[in-house]
UniProtKB/TrEMBL annotation:
SUPFAM superfamilies from the UniProt entry: Amidase signature (AS) enzymes
Catalytic reaction list: L-glutamyl-tRNA(Gln) + L-glutamine + ATP + H2O = L-glutaminyl-tRNA(Gln) + L-glutamate + ADP + phosphate + H(+)
GO biological process: translation
Function description: Allows the formation of correctly charged Gln-tRNA(Gln) through the transamidation of misacylated Glu-tRNA(Gln) in organisms which lack glutaminyl-tRNA synthetase. The reaction takes place in the presence of glutamine and ATP through an activated gamma-phospho-Glu-tRNA(Gln).
Amidase domain sequence ranges: 38-439
Source taxonomy: Bacteria, Bacillati, Bacillota, Bacilli, Bacillales
PROSITE patterns listed in its UniProt record: AMIDASES
EC number: 6.3.5.7
Gene behind this protein: gatA
Domain of life: Bacteria
Name this polypeptide is given: Glutamyl-tRNA(Gln) amidotransferase subunit A
Quaternary structure and interacting proteins, as annotated: Heterotrimer of A, B and C subunits.
Any single Gene Ontology cellular-component annotation: glutamyl-tRNA(Gln) amidotransferase complex
Active site: 52, 127, 151
Amino acid sequence: RTAASLAQDALQAVREKDGEVGAFLRLDEALSEVPSQTQGTSLLAGIPYAVKANLCVADRETTCASKILKGYRPPHTATAVVKLQEAGATLVGALNMDEFAMGSSTENSAYQITRNPWDLTRVPGGSSGGAAAAVAAGFVPFALGSDTGGSIRQPAAFCGVVGLKPTYGRVSRFGLVAFASSLDQIGPLTRTVEDAALVLQTIAGHDPLDATSANLPVPDYRAALTGEINGLRVGIPQEYFGEGVEEGVSRAVNAAIEQLKALGATVMPVSLPHTSYALAAYYILAPAEASSNLSRFDGVRYGYRADGVADLLDLYKKTRGEGFGKEVKRRILIGTYALSSGYYDAYYKRAQRVRTLIREDFLRAFADVDVLLSPTTPTMAFALGEKTDDPLTMYLNDVLTIPVNLAGLPAISVPCGLSDGLPVGLQFIGRMFDEETLLRVAHAYE
Ligand code: GLN
């Protein structure tokens, strides 16, 4: 098979079947030829893939599923995408998401909803819902998403695919439109752990264009997939199995724990005592950073511009008023409030302190165990429209993924059977920059 025919098949599948799923926002019909020197040398040569719509691709409309970026064609390509191009993979399009990655159901897209391929009446999760749905529907073997508080792992869990959030700094964020810069990380959504290892291998590494990318060697991730986890110490954070975790989810996760024991792992309970403060800290810190990052969308430099304006201030107000959706405005308001003088110490500073405590919880736990295990989400995929009127219940769906971002750790969600016919996700959390152990245990379990 040639690269062009593989990509044509992917495009054809999207044209035929994405009408009911709604995963794609942009289809790249004019495929660029695979550079001949990469063919045969890279395992990704000729493999079609797609990216979440907050990853910039030069000269291709990159909207972040927001009206305010309608028509925006960036001059640059995200480093992760450049690396995939160099490996010979073929980009076939951009995927739907919650506007600016704010949400857990992809219902906050300004353009369309995406349906869960397992049950079209349910959400695919979010914010990388298009990416998870595209992989689950079989349109592409892998996709890139971004994870600020769970946006790769939660949709992966809902759609029954693998989702990996690398350690903060493992993958360059250059060309990823920033939501909360201290939490954002790009990662793969795939069908198998081996594919996740392969994609991470390709996109990881230091990048002079991102000062927060780590200058560390990238290990051979596929070599880590030995199938051997005898003696591996797996910690079960007791706080992650509390109320709100559906019975079907805990049943599936408990079965996974038994399977790991049978493979020779030592399973022990651990405590992460500050877990219950993570969500509150996140919803101060992430909106605070977002309110700053999103100030650049002013109607002058990017995408959408309101017409009929009286003066410059009116241009800003109308453009932002018309261009941003409800959830994005809510975050900007919360963030601006939390950062304003008089409130800064009470909210932002305090949340930063909580963030440190959460990080220390993890460090303490990793003195005794090699990896942590939990459900990825408290519930299976919920119905479309079920949580759109109540932002707080929507936010609660991320309680088990958010602490990981606050601590900067790597984590992976792998499919863990079905409950009521819907996929359940199992989350493994690793030490900083120890994606190898994470991939090894996830692969042995899978
Ligand atoms: N659902 C969370 C939020 O709305 C996390 C989103 C993400 O990881 N991008 O902020």
